[in-house]
Amino acid sequence: xxxxxxxxxxxxxxxxxxxxxxxxxxxxxxxxxxxxxxxxxxxxxxxxxxxxxxxxxxxxxxxxxxxxxxxxxxxxxxxxxxxxxxxxxxxxxxxxxxxxxxxxxxxxxxxxxxxxxxxxxxxxxxxxxxxxxxxxxxxxxxxxxxxxxxxxxxxxxxxxxxxxxxxxxxxx
Length: 172
Fold this sequence. Notes:
Helix content is 38%, strand content 32%. The protein is built from 4 helices and 9 strands, in the order βααββββαββββα. A 5-stranded mixed sheet has the order 5-8-9-7-6. β8 and β9 form a beta hairpin. By secondary structure, it is of the alpha+beta class. It folds into 2 domains: 53 residues; 92 residues, PH-domain like.
């Protein structure tokens, strides 16, 4: 028997900007086409063909597909926060509302604090982010920290507070 669906109070899907994706995807596809032409037309031995096919065709196309489908999905439901960084997470990861101690919207420095964007680890804990420098910092009762990047950090914070009762940033 399936458990009843939880009410979704907040939902956000973020992708890399279209310009950035195009900037990375177009050269990957161009490299794959050039290498495919070399394999089909050039006098290359079998080992060379295999290497060019893998390194010059399959890998750039795989990278292009990955960049095109990559997305971060965040939901706040009545029982907690759900995050999925597709295609690395096929299912949502549930962060139970009762496990949260603090949550607050904040500006962060993605490169200095976490080494960039994506699923990142830094001195301040873990981060899931796609772009920008805004997000919601979650601090769990066990001391673990997770930053969720968001284009709508105030709305996300309000939704998390409504289900968890977590407090804001401590001043100490």
